């Protein structure tokens, strides 16, 4: 038992579970391989990983870094002074608007608006307006909350500074 | 068996392979465990309702199965799809799409939380580690592939070269195989994180009291965390709000009625016109090549059974009419309930001498589409509420809703409620 563990790197149960999982995934891959568009399917499968791990993740991390270093970012003084940290009032609506864009970009950008209109009998034009309206409402609401927090925040001499959230 | 790539340095090269590269004080086993625990029930419901959707097509009948035949292919289903309750498919498919929508923000957050794992050093420690990482590639690729193909499908956007249904179905096998393994392997990690830090206790900490989880080699807790700028509860509330909003959009287009307008970005999230025919259209008459001449005065319904006959629309209207409130429930997760009036399928079977009808093959005038011909089960034909509808909400069907006549079956998927019916062939039970 211990020999297996040392050679393999985990318990034999681990190996059995992995084999069972790969068997099922392998079956599905074989089924996909039978279809005429097998190569395209596998490419999209791999592209999904690349698109997320090597494009989307670095992109939004960079945007976060830019926000951090912008005047709205935490300068380090706000804990002492009257200022209320602004960064989350920027990040929270941006995360929400960004996620909804990622989820509904085909409709928002009207990527195949002809098909949509053809099938449903309705125009896809409203989605860009709706998404922009949603973003406007999110950022406006966030700014409003920020303004209220700023007014309520005690001055430097008024005791402990407010916390983020 | 022990893999020891000789040329890799023991020290990770500069960049993301070094633990100190990852600065977020929020990453750690607890955060990942909580996101994973939220995803688990969603994935289970989404998977079960997905396979139920397969069963709802009654794939054993006629040409109903949409999966490629032959080889080792199979449709996962265990029963003939029932007709009660009439909202059954609206519910299961609404749940399928809505749980999928809810899961996506959580999935993205979960992937963010485990990102340092992608750059682990050394990349391979042992055979077990190598296999586990390969399985994680299937998990990440599978989840993104399955969720996003579904997401683009409900928006009628098909930028890929493959058939959606086959890829989504078999892609979900890959995803679920890797998912089940992942849940099994990570249970100890989750229970340890919850035991050490409490399931919800870290949510009590505001920003001032937010601290990084203690660094431990091999986990995602940061070695050199930055000062926190967001509490865990703010992060989770944001992701939760995104999920809640996405869920609302899904629910709005599934429940319909006055709620529909809340489906801000949902593909069927607005009222479709006004009047008796002012409700959601899956495919317009024009989009499937229905010409006005085909559905004009010359239209006849061809009936076949023990005998054969052709009926005009007036002759159908002269038969006993029934009216029922029944939903049209689309595979894309939207539904709408309307009052349909028409002739019972059983009565049509009797016209051609089939008094104890079994299955019926329904054919449409539409020129294309996998489901221009559908086989309905004997249980569906036997239900009193299964109609060949001629009118809706007290008015003639519009061309886009299937004029001159369409099938309406309680609890059946919308694509089985064939529009522009041209012929029906009844079998005896």
Question: Can you characterise this structure?
Answer:
The complex is a heterodimer of chains A (165) and B (429). Chain A is mostly helical and 165 residues long. The model of chain A is unreliable at 157-165 (pLDDT under 50). Chain A is 72% helix and 0% strand. Chain A starts with a helix and ends in a 13-residue tail after the last helix. Chain B is of the alpha+beta class. Chain B folds into 2 domains: 19-261, no CATH class; 286-428, Oxidoreductase, molybdopterin-binding domain (Sulfite Oxidase, Chain A, domain 2). Chain B is built from 9 helices and 10 strands. Chain B has helices at residues 29-56, 88-113, 115-118, 127-154, 164-197, 232-255, 313-318, 345-351, 378-382, and strands spanning 301-304, 308-311, 322-329, 335-344, 357-364, 373-376, 387-392, 395-396, 406-408, 421-428. A 5-stranded mixed β-sheet of chain B has the order 2-1-10-5-6. In chain B, strands 3, 4, 7, 8 and 9 form a 5-stranded antiparallel β-sheet that branches. In chain B, helix 1 runs antiparallel to helix 2 and helix 1 runs antiparallel to helix 5. The model of chain B has no long low-confidence stretch (mean pLDDT 94). Chains A and B meet through helix 1, helix 2, helix 3, helix 4 and helix 5 of A and helix 2, helix 4, helix 5 and helix 6 of B.
